[in-house]
Amino acid sequence: MLGKATRESRAEPLDDETLTRVDAWWRAANYLSVGQIYLLDNPLLREPLKAEHIKPRLLGHWGTSPGQNFLYAHLNRAIIERELDMIYIAGPGHGGPSLVSASWLEGTYSEIYSGVGDDEDGMRALFRQFSYPGGIPSHVAPETPGSIHEGGELGYALSHAYGAAFDNPGLTVAAVIGDGEAETGPLATSWHSNKFLHPVTDGTVLPILHLNGYKIANPTVLARIPRSELEALMIGYGHTPYWFEGGFDGEDPMAVHQRFAALLDEVLDHIDTIRRDAHESGDPGRPAWPVIVFKTPKGWTGPREIDGQPIEDTFRSHQVPMADVRGNERYTGLLESWMRSYRPEELFNDDDGRLRAEVARLNPHGGRRMSANPHANGGTLTRDLVVPDFRSHAVDVPTPGASVAEPTRVLGGWLAAIMRANPTNFRIFGPDETASNRLNATVDVAGKTWLAETLPDDDALSPTGRVMEMLSEHQCQGWLEGYLLTGRHGVFNCYEAFVHIIDAMFNQHAKWLKVTRDIPWRVPIPSLNYLLSSHVWRQDHNGFTHQDPGFIDHVVNKKADVIRVYLPPDANTLLSTYDHCLRSRDYVNVVVSGKQPGPQWLTMDEAIAHCSRGIGIWEWASTDGGDGEPDVVLACAGDVPTVETLAAVDLLRQHLPELRVRVVNVVDLMRLQDEHEHPHGLPNAEFDALFTPDKPVVFAYHGYPWLIHRLTYRRTNHRNIHVRGYKEEGTTTTPFDMVMLNELDRFHLVMDVIDRVPGLRARNAGLRQRMSDERLRARQYTREHGKDAPEISEWVWPAARELGVAVPAADDTAADFSAPPPPPPVK
């Protein structure tokens, strides 16, 4: 079926009664959309419009609304006749009036918001609240029933639609794509999602390209290319395009309805055929799924002309076609004529203003209403994951540093077990980096989703795969968001530096979660879980472009109720952390973990206790006598900073054995913040107990150092906290040279202790100089040998050294494609 030619149907399947009902529902939705933008009062025009009936500030977007209202009406007809389970995704940026109108007409809005009834008073409240102080936004927002897609940012409608359809075989997702939105990179890429949709085990996505010609001030690209080019583009993406054009040159609306109803039925029949053939043959193939190119005038049914300037079918209808209406009698008269053109007396009862029964018959019932479909309130459908005990994947740690493991590879074994236990409820998403990030076991268990061509040398591609990989962070994020918002679970794994590509998408999802916490009818959904590996300190071979830990800084700007950031230092803490993340709801969990072989510090029981605290003293590494008062606190957050901190402690033990050192490790970064700023924040008394009220603190941190200052600025001892971290210095070099470039290395940490503990500098100038010399010697070794000196790369903690433990050097260049090493000892 791939490459099937475009079609246009001419059949007229609707009887007069259904045709009239569809048109009436469309007019009602248009009337409500205009009313929301313009009116404060007199919602049914029972008296001539006056200035006091009109909003003083006119905000909103009209241009896309009539086309979306038209589509919604026809989809409702199809839902009723075919008993479809369907949700609607409104891609055009600010189509809020349309979707709010639809949910009010369907009765859902009044069921949810008791203050906005289904009568004339309710209509007045509906109009007043729109884009009004204390009301609702002008775009499709979390407050809008039936929505899983934030309309404030463009580009993600189609990827959200596919995410919703994965593992939802009974669901149809109507994804309306604005032609302005279609110009964005993420949307242009998301057309390829059809190569990942299984016609038997997944649902259906029906893309509808709303080709109405204009953005805010310019024409849209796809509206100004020849039809043959646009058809070829859609066919090239692997779709069967169906073209519809209507509403131009004063065409009779009834004729437009008839033509579109026939085309929609043909499209839905085509979808049924695809799914039936796949069921019967057992071969999903790669269907050329239909796409509708829906071309109608911008601002359809609105004013044709105002003050001699054309409005309908121009960019001038994009937002508010007629501004400054209040107090302008001529404009007020034009507005009244516009609204009366929808003949509201035929749509709403004379006595109470409710939608007339014959019009309301176009509304599906219960959960079949797109505004009430449970898939659009995914928490109502969420099933808890079946989570195998992560303890069975524990790395045996006889003594700190005595075991070596690749943390993300260990995690991958456990995630594979989760995938096996949840074959239709859990997926892993990543931009071609799942193997590179050492999660190979998940691929071995479930394969990678792929319905395009396969060749003999391809690795683990499968039409029913559970690992979703496409070299677009946008698509991975969008797919996962759609999957979560409809009640399923997942993980997004990514290189740390390149997760920045989805900064704006993360923003929108975090804002969505923040808002939904205050919407009682929105049921909590599974958390958005990131796993960031190939991180800044182990991208030495790829160079400066791959070295950026700033996503954490971006994340912590968001509302504290939503955000969690974890930096587990080894495999056991990573397992414990991720078990917590996958069980959580309504959070964004950012977990940063290394994939390289490294020393393991805590037994599983210790790791669980440490992760439960989120922060704690490592007494086995400290020399302050347990309950004694330290001379200095060495703190660390992140796996490489932890290694460098412990190596610095080793040096201090050798050269300054009388110095009382306390080691504090941080897993949950938000524990550093004040308890009044974040739910995980430590009370001041507990923070002071760890970091002391007045002793020097040398903090080795995974990311940009100023974030630690930002989180701790209210603390008693903030003036004594000195942070080492990434200082935007990087290149292609060795792992240890990377930490030296940013002054996070063990020698610099020792120098910091000497500089900050009172009395040490004068007595230990020679030791400080030797530390500086060691840095120079280590750098020179890299320049001569192309690798780190053995005493650096093979360093182990003293207790492990006594057991003869050796740490293999990191090798990021070869291990991605080599056979996995033998599994670590299991406790």
Q: How would you summarize the topology of this molecule?
A:
Blueprint lengths: L15 H23 L26 H18 L2 E6 L5 H10 L2 H5 L7 H10 L27 H9 L5 E8 L6 H6 L13 E8 L15 H10 L3 E6 L7 H29 L8 E6 L9 E2 L2 E2 L18 H12 L16 H4 L42 E3 L1 H15 L4 E5 L9 H7 L1 E2 L11 E2 L4 E3 L3 H13 L3 E7 L7 H14 L11 E6 L17 H5 L7 E4 L4 H13 L4 E5 L5 E3 L3 H10 L1 E3 L14 E6 L1 H17 L5 E6 L17 H8 L5 E5 L4 H7 L8 E4 L10 H7 L4 H11 L3 H4 L1 H21 L4 H4 L4 H4 L26
Parallel strand pairs: 1-2, 2-3, 3-5, 4-5, 9-12, 9-13, 10-11, 13-14, 14-16, 15-16, 19-20, 19-21, 21-22
Antiparallel strand pairs: 6-7, 8-17, 18-20
Helix pairs in contact: 1-2, 1-3, 1-5, 1-9, 2-3, 6-14, 12-13, 12-17, 17-18, 19-23, 23-25
Describe this structure in words.
The protein has 827 residues and is an alpha/beta fold. The protein folds into 3 domains: 18-375, Thiamin diphosphate (ThDP)-binding fold, Pyr/PP domains (Rossmann fold), CATH 3.40.50.970; 391-592, Thiamin diphosphate (ThDP)-binding fold, Pyr/PP domains (Rossmann fold), CATH 3.40.50; 618-795, Rossmann fold, CATH 3.40.50.920. Helices cover 36% and strands 12% of the residues. The chain contains 27 helices and 22 strands. The strands form 6 sheets. A 6-stranded parallel beta sheet has the order 12-9-13-14-16-15, sandwiched between helices. The chain has a 5-stranded parallel beta sheet with strand order 1-2-3-5-4, sandwiched between helices. α1 (16-38) packs across α5 (120-129) and α1 (16-38) crosses α9 (253-281). It starts with 15 loop residues before the first helix and ends in a 26-residue tail after the last helix. Mean pLDDT is 93; it is low at 1-6 and 812-827. This is Probable phosphoketolase. Residues 14-380 form the Xylulose 5-phosphate/Fructose 6-phosphate phosphoketolase N-terminal domain. Its EC number is 4.1.2.-.
